Amino acid sequence: MDDPPRASSRDLAAVRHADDVALVAFDVDGTLVEHDKGEVVWQVLNRRYIGDSSVNAARFRDFLDGRISYAEWVALDVRGWMQGGATRQGIEHAIRQELRLVPHAARVVHDLARRGFVVAVVSGTLDIVLDVLFPDHPFAHVFTNRISFGDDGRISGWSATPYDMGGKADALRMLATKLGLPTHRVAFVGDHVNDCAAMSLVGCPIAYDPKHDDVRAVASRILPRGRLDLLLDVFPTCPRS
Fold it and tell me: Model pTM?
């Protein structure tokens, strides 16, 4: 009879770290929220109010090449929406019409919170996405881009998060320090390359429906699309104090 396969050192480390986790942080677009064609809220709103979602790819290249900062990238998008006549009502309608929570997302996050985990969001999404799709969320800490509206419903301001891309790791370091946790007691659930810095930092990096090989490479666990509920098997018990 063949010997059973041995767990790799990576598998064993993942089990150890999962047992030790106290904070579970999530990306939003592509991880907690999905679109039929894989778009994110920025693409949806650029298509609605600028008429062309392809500007996202061009502006991403400009950001990577250092021609614009992240804050300038956000400003270009939001100003385009303003020029296109965006209102809170219209943005909320677009979000409800094109985006949705991934299967099991609400149950998973609420169950983790009930089990005693600190749950958080560190994402390049817009705060209004959570406001519309997950208004009763239990997240104790939320790091996202923010947008505000005047009494007439039109956009009155915005704030670009410093905690996207590599900044996601900075947010997790700050949050871990605030909670008195070493980073090996942190889990991060993401799906794309802007999550890699955060996933590389934490003790339990988890990929949900990964969109890039770099995400698969850094993840200790991979959850297939539609099976975010498997996260409850990773963290079945209350974290230790």
Answer: 0.91
